């Protein structure tokens, strides 16, 4: 389902129970359209995510780690100015719309108490996070500025007057008298699918799944009004569940709607469910946004090298004809007396092919001897090119493999991993490095970020490099020679190190599963993973970052499992 009005109602209830009365301790904006308020409530620090992402707009408590930009945004600074230390006094919803109000009390520069409202509007590409002075409805700032050129009716700019989104002429299903309208609807529309559509045209904030779930509930035994009331009461005591239908499509519900032909997974809270549901989707979206330049550079380099490889293959194919030129040159030399100047062709018996006649083209502008030498020159040129072309093909294939590896790393990266990949592309000359010391003209030496750390079920530490710079540092510098190194076989993936000279079979399987998960084979089953002691790993001179060779390895076959890997994570 979508984050519709009914789901918003359930989320508002969950957030009210967990956060009201808490104090804002931190405010960060790790991504362009997302802000995180850390609220200290009930002796816990709870990160509240407000996302105005066009695709994944939502409000929830999140446990997914994030990395803040080096320099806070203007919106972050404005939020910190007004909300640092503020007390959250209430969480509410506008009717059954996807608009949530977070009300705060704080102190201004003079020490006077002020009331502020942080509004999140969950409206696809029009989603926004807006801070207003509640007494005057003056907009203090917004995460997205909306001028009159974008929306004549409703501008959202600092200093402007906040206007609520246009009201819908529909019934709020959570109002006391809302259930009365269903009696006629159930009578007039006996088909569940048709009834669901009519319910959406009558009641506010119903997504398609919610409307279908309600239609199904209304057709159960009992009075429609009672069934309607019971259905919406369940949003006040949610039982979060992910459902996957028989077509493989996954959605989330505040509680099971009684769908047929689905598999489901339950969660303790709506926020935990959304973390699970959105983690990969939101991470991919963030990587696509923040890594767009890297993706563009790698794609262009791949395209250039694949084009070059095709040309080299064509040249090599031409070289296959070299022997034909040699034969023609030798035939002309042998039967030179039969060739006269001015001829454009001659047919001679080919003693290399049972004396079969072979037609040889000639230039009428040069002598018979020069024609023969011309064929020998072509032969020698093509033969000389073979060695060069083979060398260039090997280098080009290595470059394509390297760029494929970088592409896979971007695809599997978290936003925090992009800095290392960017640095590597700069070091390799693929991307211009604008970060240099203006005085000395020398580039700043940056620290490679730390690998991901996991703990095996027996307590053994496992480290995972998420990019080539991390891989190289981990394998060649950090790991002990007796540690165990793992890597998915014959495809791009992370270097994985078990910090133990003799790990248990279980730890080996767990580390291999991690290696398979952090590889291009993430969506595959029965993935081969090689493992060997670090002392048997070698890096050839002049090779790209992260490239190593090894021998004496053994191989395990595992199936990547996200939930299993997350259980071992130290996040």
From TrEMBL:
This is Rqc2 homolog RqcH. Belongs to the NEMF family. One of its GO terms (cellular component) is RQC complex. Residues 295-322 form a coiled coil. The lineage of its organism: Bacteria, Bacillati, Bacillota, Bacilli, Lactobacillales. InterPro entries: NFACT_RNA-bd (IPR008532), RQC_Subunit_NEMF (IPR051608), RqcH_bacterial (IPR043682). Residues 439-448 have a biased composition (Basic residues). It comes from Secundilactobacillus mixtipabuli. PANTHER family: NUCLEAR EXPORT MEDIATOR FACTOR NEMF, RIBOSOME QUALITY CONTROL COMPLEX SUBUNIT NEMF. Pfam families: NFACT-R_1 (PF05670), NFACT_N (PF05833).
């Amino acid at each position: 389902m979508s984050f519709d009005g009914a789901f918003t109602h359930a989320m508002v209830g969950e957030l009210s129970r967990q956060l009201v009365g808490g104090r804002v301790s931190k405010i960060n904006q790790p991504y362009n359209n997302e802000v995180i308020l850390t609220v200290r409530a009930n002796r816990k620090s709870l990160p509240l995510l407000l996302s105005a992402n066009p695709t994944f707009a939502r409000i929830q408590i999140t446990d997914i780690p994030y990395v803040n930009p080096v320099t806070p945004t203007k919106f972050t600074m404005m939020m910190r100015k007004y909300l640092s230390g503020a007390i959250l006094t209430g969480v509410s919803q506008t009717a059954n719309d996807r608009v949530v109000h977070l009300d705060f009390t704080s102190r201004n520069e003079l020490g006077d108490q002020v009331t502020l409202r942080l509004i999140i509007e969950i409206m696809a590409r029009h989603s926004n996070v807006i801070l207003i002075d509640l007494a005057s409805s003056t907009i203090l700032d917004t995460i997205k500025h909306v001028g009159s050129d974008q929306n004549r009716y409703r501008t959202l700019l600092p200093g402007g007057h906040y206007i609520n989104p246009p009201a819908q002429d529909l019934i709020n299903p959570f109002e006391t008298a809302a259930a009365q309208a269903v009696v006629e609807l159930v009578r007039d529309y006996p088909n569940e699918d048709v009834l669901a559509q009519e319910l959406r045209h009558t009641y506010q904030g119903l997504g398609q799944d919610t409307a279908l779930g309600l239609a199904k509930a209304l057709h159960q035994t009992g009075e429609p009004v009672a069934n309607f009331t019971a259905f919406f009461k369940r949003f006040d005591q949610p039982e979060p569940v992910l459902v996957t239908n028989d077509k493989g499509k996954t959605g989330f519900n505040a509680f099971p709607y009684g769908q047929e032909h689905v598999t489901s997974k339950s969660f303790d809270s709506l926020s935990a469910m959304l973390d699970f549901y959105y983690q990969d989707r939101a991470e991919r979206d963030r990587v696509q946004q923040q890594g767009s330049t890297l993706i563009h550079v790698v794609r262009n380099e791949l395209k250039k090298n694949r084009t070059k490889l095709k040309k080299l293959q064509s040249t090599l194919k031409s070289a296959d004809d070299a022997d034909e030129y040699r034969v023609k040159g030798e035939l002309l030399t042998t039967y030179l007396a039969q060739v006269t100047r001015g001829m454009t062709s001659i047919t001679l018996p080919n003693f290399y092919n049972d004396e079969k006649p072979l037609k040889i083209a000639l230039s009428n502008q040069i002598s018979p001897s020069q024609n023969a030498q011309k064929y020998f020159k072509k032969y020698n040129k093509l033969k000389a090119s073979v060695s060069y072309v083979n060398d260039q093909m090997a280098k080009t294939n290595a470059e394509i493999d390297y760029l494929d590896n970088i592409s896979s790393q971007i695809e599997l990266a978290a936003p925090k991993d992009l800095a290392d990949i960017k640095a590597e592309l700069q070091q390799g000359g693929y991307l211009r490095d604008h970060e240099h010391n203006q005085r000395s003209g020398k580039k700043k030496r940056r620290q490679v970020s730390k690998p991901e750390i996991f703990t095996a079920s027996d307590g053994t530490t496992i480290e995972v490099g998420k990019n080539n710079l991390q891989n190289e540092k981990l394998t060649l510098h950090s790991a002990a020679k007796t540690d165990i190194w793992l890597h998915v076989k014959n495809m791009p993936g992370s270097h994985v190190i078990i910090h133990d000279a003799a790990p248990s079979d279980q730890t080996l399987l767990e580390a291999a599963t991690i290696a398979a998960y952090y590889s291009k084979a993430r969506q595959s089953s029965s993935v081969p993973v090689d493992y060997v002691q670090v002392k048997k790993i070698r890096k050839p001179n002049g090779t790209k970052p992260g490239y190593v060779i090894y021998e004496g390895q053994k191989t395990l076959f595992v199936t990547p499992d996200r939930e299993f890997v997350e259980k071992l994570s130290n996040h």
